[in-house]
Amino acid sequence: MTTPSLPNISTLHSLSESNLTTVLDLLFEPSPPLRNLSLPVLKSTAFPSYPTLIAAINAQLTALASSTNPEDIATLSDILCAHPRLGEKKVDSEQSRAEQAQLNTGDQEEANKLKRLNTLYEETFPGLRYVVFVNGRPRPAIMSNMNSRIARNDIKAERQEAIQAMCDIAADRARKLEQ
Q1: What positions does the domain Oxo-4-hydroxy-4-carboxy-5-ureidoimidazoline decarboxylase occupy (predicted)?
Q2: How high is the mean pLDDT in each 10-residue block of the chain (179 residues)?
Q3: DSSP strands (E only) in the chain
Q4: What does the angle CA 158 – CA 101 – CA 90 come to, to the nearest 5 degrees?
């Protein structure tokens, strides 16, 4: 299987919508609402670097999180929920599968605890999915973070933290996928 790569950042604004969609899907998770939000910016802006592009998307997502319009919050939730649950057995995204690989090893008791935490998180924050930049951290460290975020019980802070995690993941992917 061929390892995907990102095109040179200087060529982005001249790429087809299909190719720009591929770029978004590689950096983030495949998400039609994210595409609808960000493709116009990618088509019309020449970015000097992938971190700058990711910062622009971060700003778009933060604007949604700050909105009082329920449709904006629903769009943001759809985008954040494009990320798979941690510890899921079936993960469509090649990048997410690789990033979560160490979370899917270990004993069944820990796996069950992670599954329960996912459920508790989603009950605490309806419409959200726990998003974190795993970055090689072991399952107990991730579960500790998850518990802290659940205990904080602040949906606005949670949206911001999920946006930042999504963008941290995208930045890491960009470093790995740039040609």
Answers
A1: 14-175
A2: 83 93 94 96 94 98 97 96 76 49 63 89 94 86 94 96 96 88
A3: none
A4: 80
In this predicted structure, what is the pLDDT of residue 129?
92
Cα–Cα distance measured from residue 141 to residue 150, given in angstroms and rounded to the nearest whole number: 14
The topology (CATH level 3) of 9-177 is: UraD-like (1.10.3330)
Residues 94, 127: Cα–Cα separation, whole Å: 24
User: What is the C-alpha to C-alpha distance for residues 28 and 171, in angstroms, rounded to an integer?
Assistant: 9
Specify the amino acid at residue 60: Q
Tokens 């796996």 belong to which residue?
A: 111
Which is nearest to 25 in space by CA: 75, 97, 100, 95? Answer: 95
Helix (H, G, I), strand (E, B) or coil at 28: coil
**Looking at this protein, which amino acid is placed at residue 87?**
G
